[in-house]
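Q: Structure tokens for this one, please.
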Amino acid sequence: EEQFRDEVEKMEKGEKMAYVTSIERLGIEKGERLGIKKGERLGIEKGERLGIEKGERLGVQKGLLEAIDVGLSVRFPAQAAELLARARSIEAIERLRAITRALSSGEPLEAIEALLGSAEEPSE
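A: Here is the predicted structure, written as tokens:
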């Protein structure tokens, strides 16, 4: 038994092993659990904020597309379906607003087509 203690002492002195008491270990585990819970809560809050922002953006986009649909149907009924399909590929809110303003201010078809761009053109 004495030899065993001597060996343990040598090992502890040689490796400078840190001893963690059961109380310290419980504190560490509790801290880890609290950290995980806080991280989960922050992740959920961030997800909710992003979801709200995306929902608002999609709502604005949908409203603008409805206004464009009405404007095209009234002003250019023969081309409305094709032009609306092009408008639906646009995600940039400011670009959709510009199209809506152009339609409401009486801009000619060529100006509307220029704002819509081609179907393959990136939507910014």
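A few notes: Residues 85 and 119 are 8 Å apart (CA to CA). The first helix runs from residue 2 to 15.
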